[in-house]
Specification:
The protein has 38 helices and two strands.
């Protein structure tokens, strides 16, 4: 290597010291090389693609952060420290703000005084953009100027960065009393305890401070209590939290009510409107609460709405490196995608959630993510998210979510057995969590096990507090009417009502499953033509969103009625969000809907009944993946 090449390498090391987007004007001073050498080195680095212009900022940046880190590490510790000192001097000479000099203060190891104060102040601002960096700066400041306030800030930054064990250790060293700092510490501890699954100790820790009325503390403890199965206490706290400003109390109340099977649509709608009005920067402190709101929207039967908000919040969390909220958002997004019938997207989100949350506490959130991902894999026929070794029996250690997923997976096995045995031990957690949704699954499992009295008892306990809850209750009633009562006509009526409600809410897989039950009931009632139409629609909807196993079930039911059905598996990229072709009658009705005609006007124009129009329109909603008449018009125009 020539002398010139060695000097160019020093310029690369200096650029690495200056960060991912190095200020090129500082390179001569930091590298201690003449401008001609610096310019030659920059030409070479740009030519080799090491440094590239950023389209958003106009500044040069390293194309690959791992390459920068490798260049930084190869410079040698002593040289790096001196380079950081030179960068610090240059930045201070030009009056740079504290947030720009803090990294160099820490890396240069500047002792005490004003440097520590600048670093601490910069960390407070950096927490919302990169909490891991803020935590590193705060450790430096804390080592040189210990204080309770700095230790609390460190714990908050560590929690946001996803280092929950370190955050918990920092919180353990805080004093047991101290007014506002104590409440802030309890909020941080409740965030960590909720994510790590430490429910009883988190509740006990905050119990004596709840009367201070801090909305964030009340909201977090309310959700912890709800997850622990303390529904009444959780609801009382969430209602108190909802009196405070912002979305935290409303999001907690919406989730707690949904987990308790109560009506929460108005609260969730109001909170959602507030979220939609926030800028990305304003959203950062409330990212976890968007995840709560997303979970509530899924339980309310609004998965498309949940996906829109949660995916936006997840993008913000990634941009700002907020790992703790991102774990919750990925879990909520995966559940929303699963409910909406976007199975590939659900598995992608849940796989990332499992990876991100695997080290949190005992890994309970990761197990829930794996369980739900395995359910998505079972529905699609593509295998479980955790690999070939993940089978329903291994999901049963993931709490209520794992038991729910494991029971549903067992019901899809060629010879389904043991689903009720999987579900019953988790009954204390599942009955308040998810309300009618889990109740419908209990009914189904009990019927599969031949325990009709148990199915009837669970059906009698179902309470419907909203349109989707009513749909699940109607589906459960249809299953009992068909399997135990022999009332096929009533079963068909109830299952069709459930299917139509699910379709209106964009819940394609639930609508397809209800369609299978309705088709079976119509066939049992002797309505073979109607049964074939219902089953064909269910088959098309389920296969269209990638639910291959359930689509195969609809195809088998059609074959029983004499229809020849072939299977053609589409690639996942074509299955995802694909609209299914409309029949000639459905297309005709869709065109009239686009023209602004009501169901009654369409019925008169086509000489058919209002009910026939409604049935065809439900099929249109399902096949196009929409939930209202306006969306039908938009899809047809786009086509």
């Amino acid at each position: 290597m020539t002398v010139v090449e060695l000097c160019e390498r020093v310029v690369l090391h200096a650029a690495a010291v200056l960060g991912s987007e190095p200020d090129l004007s500082l390179l001569p001073q930091v590298s201690e090389q003449p401008p001609a050498i610096v310019d030659r080195a920059l030409d070479r680095l740009a030519g080799e693609g090491v440094l590239v212009p950023d389209a958003a900022t106009g500044r040069w940046r390293f194309a690959d952060e791992s390459a920068r880190l490798a260049a930084y590490a190869s410079a040698g510790a002593g040289w790096r420290r001196r380079a950081h000192s030179r960068a610090l001097t240059a930045l201070r000479d030009r009056g740079a703000p504290a947030v720009e000099v803090a990294d160099h203060v820490v890396a240069a190891g500047e002792p005490g005084g004003g440097g520590v104060g600048a670093v601490a102040g910069a960390a407070a601002r950096r927490r919302w953009r990169d909490p891991a960096v803020a935590a590193r700066w705060l450790r430096f400041a804390l080592d040189r100027a210990p204080s309770t306030a700095l230790r609390l800030r460190l714990a908050e930054a560590l929690a946001a960065a996803g280092d929950l064990d370190a955050a918990r250790a920092a919180l353990a060293e805080l004093p047991a009393s101290g007014g506002r700092l104590r409440v802030r510490a309890l909020v941080a501890a409740s965030r960590v305890g909720l994510a790590m699954g430490c429910y009883p100790e988190t509740i006990a820790l905050a119990q004596r401070d709840l009367d201070q009325g801090n909305p964030r503390l009340l909201a977090h403890i309310a959700v912890v209590q709800a997850m622990a199965g303390e529904a009444a206490a959780a609801r009382a706290l969430a209602e108190k939290a909802d009196r405070g400003p912002g979305i935290v109390g409303a999001a907690a109340l919406a989730l707690v009510r949904c987990l308790d099977g109560a009506y929460a649509e108005a609260v969730a709608t109001g909170a959602g409107e507030v979220v939609d009005g926030l800028t990305d920067a304003e959203l950062v402190p409330d990212l976890e609460y968007v995840a709560w709101l997303g979970l509530a929207d899924v339980l309310l039967g609004r998965p498309a709405q949940a996906l829109r908000r949660v995916d936006r919040a997840a993008r913000v969390a990634r941009d700002r490196r907020q790992v703790l909220p991102l774990g919750w958002l990925l879990l909520a997004g995966g559940l929303a995608a699963l409910a909406h019938g976007e199975l590939a997207g659900a598995r992608d989100r849940l796989r990332e959630a499992a990876r991100l949350t695997g080290s949190w506490g005992d890994g309970h959130l990761a197990r829930v993510a794996v369980a739900l991902g395995s359910l998505a894999g079972a529905v699609s026929g593509s295998g479980p998210v955790g690999g070939a070794g993940t089978v329903p029996g291994q999901l049963e250690g993931a709490g209520g979510g794992g038991a729910y997923a494991a029971a549903r997976c067992r019901l899809m096995e060629p010879a389904p057995v043991g689903a009720l045995a999987v579900l019953e031990p988790a009954g204390a957690v599942l009955e308040p969590a998810g309300g009618v949704l889990t109740g419908e699954l209990f009914v189904r499992c009990a019927l599969q096990a031949g325990d009709v009295p148990a199915a009837r008892r669970r059906l009698d306990r179902l309470s419907a507090a909203g349109a989707v809850s009513r749909a699940y209750a109607e589906l459960a009633a249809a299953r009992v009417a068909l399997a135990a009562d022999g009332d096929a006509a009533e079963a068909a009526h109830q299952a069709l009502a459930a299917r139509n409600a699910f379709a209106r809410h964009g819940m394609r897989i639930a609508a397809g499953e209800a369609g299978i039950v309705a088709g079976r009931a119509q066939a049992a009632a002797g309505e073979h033509r109607a049964a074939l139409l219902t089953l064909r629609t269910a088959d098309e909807v389920l296969t269209g969103c990638g639910a291959t196993r359930l689509g195969d079930e609809a195809a088998r039911e059609q074959r029983k009625l004499g229809r020849f059905v072939t299977r053609r598996v589409l690639p996942a990229t074509r299955r995802r969000n694909q609209a299914q072709p409309l029949s000639s009658r459905e297309a005709e009705i869709a065109r009239l809907v686009t023209a602004g005609m009501t169901n009654r006007q369409i019925a008169a124009a086509l000489f058919i009944s209002d009910k026939t129009v409604e049935r065809h329109l439900s099929s249109v909603f399902l096949k196009l993946g929409v939930s209202n008449r306006a969306a039908v018009a938009l899809r047809l125009v786009a086509a």
